[in-house]
Amino acid sequence: QVQLVESGGGLVQAGGSLRLSCAASGRTFSSYSMGWFRQVPGKEREFVAAIGWSAGDIYYLDSVKGRFTISRDNGENTVYLQMNSLKPDDTAVYYCAASTSPRVMVLPQLYDYWGQGTQVTVSS
């Protein structure tokens, strides 16, 4: 069982930055691949970024490439999402998720555990 708690969301102007954190409970954090998803009302949950067991196994949604960076600190049981050059279209509730697969996963149904979400609002 893994519990995930996101933090770091908030209100920022377009062009600004935020860093989201997701703290995981449990001793086997390094054995989970981790993902970030986002969702706006009325739309399906959208993949944003994922990182596998290996820090070199990373995948991004095309629209966030070059602006967002996912990373993990296995010693701190935490995964991060650094978001730069934010746009109003990035406004959403952001969720982190954990999968027992060693590789990055882009489909939300392949993730086993989810956090409660953190709101990110980007004003124009």
Task: Tell me what you see in this structure.
By secondary structure, the chain is mostly beta strands. Helix content is 0%, strand content 48%. The protein has no helices and eleven strands. The strands form two sheets. Strands 2, 4, 5, 6, 9, 10 and 11 form a seven-stranded mixed beta sheet that branches. Strands 1-3-8-7 form a four-stranded antiparallel beta sheet, with no helix packed on it. A hairpin with a 6-residue loop joins β4 (33-39) and β5. The mean pLDDT is 95.
Features:
mainly beta, seven-stranded mixed β-sheet, 124 residues
Brief summary of the model shown:
The protein is mainly β.
Label the structural class. Answer: mainly beta
Content of β-strand? over 45%
Number of extended strands: 11
What is the CA–CA distance across the termini? 40 Å
**Gyration radius from CA atoms, angstroms:** 13 Å
Shape: globular
Helix count equals 0
What proportion of the residues is helical, as a percent range?
under 10%
Biggest pleated-sheet summary: 7 strands, mixed
Sequence stretches where pLDDT stays below 50 over 5 or more residues: none
Q: What is the residue-averaged pLDDT?
A: 95
Order of helices and strands: EEEEEEEEEEE
